[in-house]
Amino acid sequence: MLDQNGVIPSAARWYVMRVEEYRKAREGRKLRDHRVDDVVSYLQAVGRDQRLESWQMAQVVQALQLLFCQLLGVPWCGEIDWDYYWKAAFQELGSEHPTVARQNRPIGEGGSSAADPPKPAQLVNPSLRSLIRTAQKHRLGFLSLARM
What we know:
Number of domains: 2
Strand content: under 5%
Structural class: mainly alpha
Number of helices: 7
Helix content: 40-55%
Radius of gyration: 22 Å
Distance between the termini: 46 Å
Order of helices and strands: HHHHHHH
Largest sheet: none
Mean pLDDT: 75
């Protein structure tokens, strides 16, 4: 089935491993009993894994799509926007994406020096300062911040 869908023989084992990783992460039920939410939440979680290259994410998407749509033929397969996850796998971060460090400068530029490092408060994103102040005011710990 994999070769009929353009998967080269040397990559076939990786597709099997992608399905095995899914099963391990979602163990406890037969694959036929899985639902849209199971697959979508898994794809979202895997998509957040920064260690994965875009081609590896594409393998995950295609492996799960082949598993659920062709091999198992589950009735809900068409409810997943597979194209969205395919495109997301290869989407480059734009220059305005918050995780792009385009505004970061090494210590020593812009008036600072290694002898005069920035204060910790200067390293915090300004939009988070009020949240941190509120947490400190109400004596909320780090875990409380994470739940907000």
